Amino acid sequence: MAWVQIRINSTDKKAEQMSDFLEEIGAVSVTFMDSQDTPIFEPLPGETRLWGNTDVVALFDAETDMQQIVQLLQKETYLDEHSAYKIEQIEDKDWEREWMDNFHPMQFGRRLWICPSWREVPEPDAVNVMLDPGLAFGTGTHPTTALCLEWLDSLDLQGKTLIDFGCGSGILAIAALKLGAKSAIGIDIDPQAILASRNNAEQNGVADRLQLFLSQDKPTNLQADVVVANILAGPLKELAPIISQLVKPNGVLGLSGILSTQAKLVCDAYVGSFILEPVEEREEWCRITGKLS
Q1: Which whole number is the average pLDDT over 9-35?
Q2: Which own/partner pairs from 34-39 qualify as long-range (CB within 8 Å, at least 24 positions apart)?
């Protein structure tokens, strides 16, 4: 099927409303792109992050009268004489196949591989987590997830319990279980993350050892030998008292989703309770680990 798209330069204040309107007038999809190449950082589950200067890109059937679309946008004041926009034809491709071809098995640490289900496992005797990209964050491609996976691979998890705070796709909890953890608990604020984690756990044969809770439903006095939280610096700082209480005596903590420039801010929130190790950095992101003091 042939497509045509309109790219409109907008602002973060108008982009969401414009997106809703574009869908109302026939857009089959609407995406936001940073028009100034600002790094796109990972959102909280369920959160839509926009930028100060945002391009709104809407996809329509190629038969659509795009001049009429422009007129409707002008009528609703989403476009004016100073607005910049561009209409262009989109090459027809098998987008699903192209996307699948670009997702490959990835190794983390010595033993752990994350593999899409449609590719052959590179090392059958390794610890292989089968995980397909989905709606929840966490496939291993982002540096923060990679840092956490490598940390888990470095631990002796045999017989240990783990809490994945902000579990997303469940990738960290599932990896820990396949690396030898006795049981794991995933916690998230997004019901889609709970669903994705459950499906991925079933695909990997570990669903019977993984409990999943929405944040507001998690049991009181919950603790584990290992706690990992790959979210964002702000929540990690604000939730430090809650996250710290999840770690058992002599337990360990791993935090990521943190820009290197934010490391001190997060470290300061945990240094009173944990003996912290040197910060591990990768591509402007970092991981903070420590043992309960």
Answers
A1: 87
A2: 35/9, 39/284
Give the integer Cα–Cα distance in Å for 120 and 74. Answer: 51
Task: Please name the CATH architecture into which domain 137-292 falls.
Answer: 3-Layer(aba) Sandwich (3.40)
pLDDT at 44 over 80: no
Quick one: the chain helix, strand, coil %, rounded to 5?
A: 30, 30, 40
User: Looking at domain 3-90, which of 3.30.70, 3.20.20, 2.30.30, 3.40.50 is its CATH number?
Assistant: 3.30.70
Asked if 8 and 31 count as a contact pair (C-beta separation under 8 A), the reply is no
The rounded distance, in Å, linking the Cα atoms of 62 and 91 is 11
pLDDT at 23: 93
Query: Would you state the structure tokens that stand for residue 177, as one six-digit string?
Result: 């279980």
Tell me the torsion sign for CA atoms 143, 243, 193, 33.
Answer: negative
Q: Is 11 annotated as a binding residue?
A: no
Q: Is 141 annotated as a binding residue?
A: no
Measured CA to CA, the distance from residue 168 to residue 81 in angstroms comes to 43
Which segments of the chain belong to CATH 3.30.70? 3-90
**Are 286 and 256 within 8 A, CB to CB?**
yes
pLDDT in tens, 96-108: 555 556 678 889 9
Residues 6+ apart with CB under 8 A from 62: 1, 2, 3, 4, 89
The stretch 261-282 carries a mean pLDDT of 95
Q: Is 230 annotated among the ligand-binding residues?
A: yes
Which of helix, strand or coil describes residue 53? Answer: coil
Query: Does 52 belong to an annotated binding site?
Result: no
Q: CA 46, 223, 129 angle in degrees (round to 5)?
A: 60
